[in-house]
């Protein structure tokens, strides 16, 4: 098998973006004082390349990734770029690495696009040089064979907070992730795979460790159903898979009488729905995990079973959304 490659582009304040290069995968050498090390001038995107049934290469909604990437870069004072030009470079890179895009169910080529400040010095100022690079990794099933559902431990502000209004929670910057690892290690030591991040005195649900959250409910005292996901209020990452699920749900479920809502939902409401039998199922969405059912959530001393119940199988919602 040929040597793996990476794509890189340098930028400087005086010269702008320089000539892109596709190079063998290699280490990056940086000055010890570069601003990415000291002050976190870094952002990234995760996206995937697939092969369709005819063996053609496909990128999954890449323009949305590029726009989110630009917003993340702007939030941490990194240089902007032409989204369409960067997409052309990514497409060229995927063509070069096509042998790693397997025509096999559940398999894809994960693309990690990174932009980081590389200017040296100990002053806290906007970067005057930067590096944009892309690395690729073949990936298969996120949780492996035999996976049936994940378990979450609800984490509120008395323990740790993932993001807050006016912060950078809506952006994919490295500073959002490192502070979350210690609480997640604690959750894992309790037997749970990820944290469910809560916010505020009322324990409002935001998102899980690597996923946006969707909740399927039976509407009180009726035969109607509701699909709920927390709103994009600045605290939550605007997931590309989340957006797909919302659009599919609006197209496939609303004409069947479902309510499809982006609204605040707190843990008291979720626990009450579970106790009454109104909670049908919970699942998470993300580029890596795609759609992942949640089996249970620990909230304080309470264990919330997330379904599906015997009368409502997980496949029911999926089949409704893919029918027609």
Automatic annotation (TrEMBL):
The chain residues annotated with the modification N6-(pyridoxal phosphate)lysine are 172
Reactions catalysed: L-valine + 2-oxoglutarate = 3-methyl-2-oxobutanoate + L-glutamate; L-isoleucine + 2-oxoglutarate = (S)-3-methyl-2-oxopentanoate + L-glutamate; L-leucine + 2-oxoglutarate = 4-methyl-2-oxopentanoate + L-glutamate
Q: Which GO terms describe its biological process?
A: L-leucine biosynthetic process; L-valine biosynthetic process
Alphabetized InterPro entries for the sequence: Aminotrans_IV (IPR001544), Aminotrans_IV_CS (IPR018300), Aminotransferase-like (IPR036038), B_amino_transII (IPR005786), BCAT-like_C (IPR043132), BCAT-like_N (IPR043131), BCAT_family (IPR033939)
Q: Which domain of life is it from?
A: Eukaryota
Cofactor (UniProt): pyridoxal 5'-phosphate
Q: Name one GO cellular component term.
A: mitochondrion
What are the alphabetically sorted keywords of the record?
A: Amino-acid biosynthesis, Aminotransferase, Branched-chain amino acid biosynthesis, Pyridoxal phosphate, Transferase
Q: Does the keyword Metal-binding apply?
A: no
Q: Name one Pfam family in it.
A: Aminotran_4
Q: Which GO terms describe its molecular function?
A: branched-chain-amino-acid transaminase activity
The EC number(s) this enzyme carries: 2.6.1.42
The broad enzyme category this protein falls into is: transferase
In the record, the note on similarity to other proteins reads:
Belongs to the class-IV pyridoxal-phosphate-dependent aminotransferase family.
Protein name per the record = Branched-chain-amino-acid aminotransferase
């Amino acid at each position: 098998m040929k040597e793996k490659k990476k794509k890189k582009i340098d930028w400087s304040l005086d010269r702008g973006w320089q000539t892109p290069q596709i190079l063998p995968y290699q280490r990056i050498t940086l000055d010890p004082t570069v601003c990415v090390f000291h002050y976190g001038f870094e952002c990234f995107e995760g996206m995937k390349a697939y092969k369709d049934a005819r063996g053609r290469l496909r990128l999954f909604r890449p323009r949305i990734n590029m726009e989110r990437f630009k917003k993340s870069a702007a939030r941490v004072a990194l240089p902007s770029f032409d989204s369409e030009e960067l997409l052309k470079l990514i497409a060229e890179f995927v063509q070069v690495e096509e042998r790693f895009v397997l025509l096999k169910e559940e398999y894809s080529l994960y693309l990690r696009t990174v932009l980081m400040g590389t200017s040296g010095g100990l002053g806290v100022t906007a970067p005057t040089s930067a590096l944009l690079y892309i690395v690729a990794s073949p990936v298969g099933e996120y949780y492996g064979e035999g996976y049936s559902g994940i378990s979450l431990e609800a984490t509120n502000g008395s323990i740790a907070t993932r993001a807050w209004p006016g912060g950078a929670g809506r952006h994919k910057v490295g500073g959002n992730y490192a502070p979350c690892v210690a609480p997640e290690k604690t959750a894992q030591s309790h037997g749970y795979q990820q944290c469910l991040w809560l916010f505020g005195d009322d324990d409002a649900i935001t998102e899980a460790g690597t996923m946006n959250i969707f909740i399927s409910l039976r509407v009180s005292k009726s035969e109607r159903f509701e699909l709920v996901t927390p709103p994009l209020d600045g605290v939550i990452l605007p997931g590309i898979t989340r957006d797909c699920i919302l659009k599919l749900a609006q197209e496939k479920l609303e004409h069947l009488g479902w309510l499809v809502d982006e609204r605040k939902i707190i843990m008291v409401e979720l626990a009450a729905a579970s106790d009454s039998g109104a909670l049908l199922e919970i699942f998470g969405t993300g580029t890596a995990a795609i759609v992942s059912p949640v089996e249970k959530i620990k909230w304080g001393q309470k264990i919330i079973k997330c379904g599906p119940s015997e009368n409502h199988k997980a496949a029911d919602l999926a089949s409704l959304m893919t029918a027609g």
